[in-house]
Amino acid sequence: VQLQASGGGLVQPGGSLRLSCAASGSISSINAMNWFRQPPGKQRELIATITNGGSTNYADSVKGRFTISRDNAKNTVFLQMNSLKPEDTAVYYCNADLFFSAAWGSRWGQGTLVTVSS
């Protein structure tokens, strides 16, 4: 069971990027799916959460600019990032609570780098 993140890259301030994270393996169910980020020299922080029912929550720093969504049929979570700022530069990680091998467990994606710079 693993999470595979993609979609990072270099973007100019004010631009947009869409991150994806797909869960694969013998997964029976997925509860919350989350996006974290870790800016250079700083701690990892939770920025967006979506439950299996579609309820969402955002950190104040991204509220109104980022949108988290999920495709339950494809076990995939997305992060649409608009109006990007240089302070959004970070490695972005997906995380999910998964039911597999008869137990719940948390898995992390490998991280994808987002650089916002002119």
Name some characteristics of this structure.
mainly beta, elongated, seven-stranded mixed sheet
Description:
There is one protein chain. It is built from no helices and 11 strands. It has strands at residues 2-6, 9-11, 17-24, 29-38, 45-50, 56-58, 66-71, 76-81, 90-100, 103-108, 112-116. The strands form 2 sheets. Strands 2, 4, 5, 6, 9, 10 and 11 form a 7-stranded mixed beta sheet that branches. Strand 4 and strand 5 form a beta hairpin. The chain is elongated, with a radius of gyration of 14 Å. 30% of the residues are buried. The model has no long low-confidence stretch (mean pLDDT 96).
Task: Produce the secondary structure layout.
Blueprint: E1 2-6, E2 9-11, E3 17-24, E4 29-38, E5 45-50, E6 56-58, E7 66-71, E8 76-81, E9 90-100, E10 103-108, E11 112-116
Radius of gyration: 14 Å
Strand content: over 45%
Count of DSSP E strands?
11
> What coarse outline follows from CA principal-axis ratios?
elongated
Helix content class: under 10%
Unreliable stretches (pLDDT < 50, length at least 5) are none
Number of helices: 0
Secondary-structure element series: EEEEEEEEEEE
> Could you give the distance between the termini?
38 Å
Q: For the residues shown, what is the average pLDDT? A: 96
Summarize the biggest pleated sheet.
7 strands, mixed
Coarse structural class: mainly beta
Short description:
This protein is mainly β and 118 residues long.
